Amino acid sequence: MTLNGAMQVSASGMTAERFRMDVISSNIANANSVQAGTNDPYRRREVVVEGGQQGVHIVQVVEDQTPFQWKHDPGNPRANKDGDVQESNIQPVTEMVDMMGASRAYEANVAAFNAAKGMVKSALTISRV
Fold first, then answer.
1. Sequence ranges of the domains in the chain
2. pTM, whole model, 2 decimals?
3. DSSP β-ladder status, 69-72 and 55-63
4. Which helix (H) or strand (E) holds 48?
5. Cβ atoms of 47 and 23 closer than 8 Å
6. What are the backbone angles phi and psi of residue 102, rounded to the nearest 5°?
7. SS3 content of the chain, % helix, strand, coil (to 5)
């Protein structure tokens, strides 16, 4: 693989991890959503990525099929006849762990990109001598 190819792979990894962080942020923002009428609460979303010779590609964003949670809250206007409210299937702690993983992966891709960029700069200075 060439240095330009290595930089391209790292750049695609940064793009995928940034997108993953955007989806996780959306999950966190909707963690407290509840059922509204006949509409289900917000369902957690996950990013599916695929790696190859050309880098990382986002395949799709899928909805997590984990069952929704029920909370007993008889004072809530959206509560059913038993006083229960259907809430999102998002676990904020899990989302924060996923966010940390995506952030670390992004940082690793930045480091790899910068290392390849440094090698290209060194190669250019060698050719001047």
1. 3-128
2. 0.85
3. unpaired
4. strand 45-52
5. yes
6. -65, -40
7. 50, 20, 30
**Residues 63-86: pLDDT tens digits?**
999 999 999 999 888 888 899 999
pLDDT at 129: 60
Check: CB of residue 61 under 8 Å from CB of residue 16.
no
Q: Tokens for 52?
A: 């190859």
Q: Is the dihedral of CA 35, 59, 23, 70 positive or negative?
A: positive
Bridge-based pairing of strands 84-87 and 69-72 is antiparallel
Per-residue pLDDT reduced to its tens digit, 83-128 = 999 999 999 999 999 999 999 999 999 999 999 999 988 888 886 7
Label residues 74-105 b or e (16+ Cβ within 10 Å = b). eeeeebeeeebbbbbbbbeeebeebbeebeeb
Structure tokens belonging to residue 39: 């509409």
